[in-house]
Automatic annotation (TrEMBL):
Pfam families: A_thal_3526. The lineage of its organism: Eukaryota, Viridiplantae, Streptophyta, Embryophyta, Tracheophyta. PANTHER family: ARGININOSUCCINATE LYASE, OS02G0137100 PROTEIN. NCBIfam families: A_thal_3526. Coiled coil: none annotated. InterPro entries: CHP01589_pln. This is Plant protein 1589 of Uncharacterized protein function.
Amino acid sequence: MGDSSQSYIRLVQHLIEKCLIFKMTKEECMVALSKHANIKPVITSTVWNELEKENKEFFEAYAQSQSKQDRMSEEETSQMIQKMISDSPKDPDE
């Protein structure tokens, strides 16, 4: 895999990690990254699935901890995604 592909995957992983901080579901993350970062949902889903495989215990606990009252409104989520994208470096390793 080339350097640009690895950098892109790292960027997607970084943005997924931000989605996790905001307690988003996989589906919400896929929609948000598609809408705000122009990342195809299939790519987000694939990277998410790999993260789940590598961090099984974390994702099991994450799934259990999610509840409606703890989650942000759609507007709050949209604002936070816009902010994290504008704050994100081009290369998450910078």
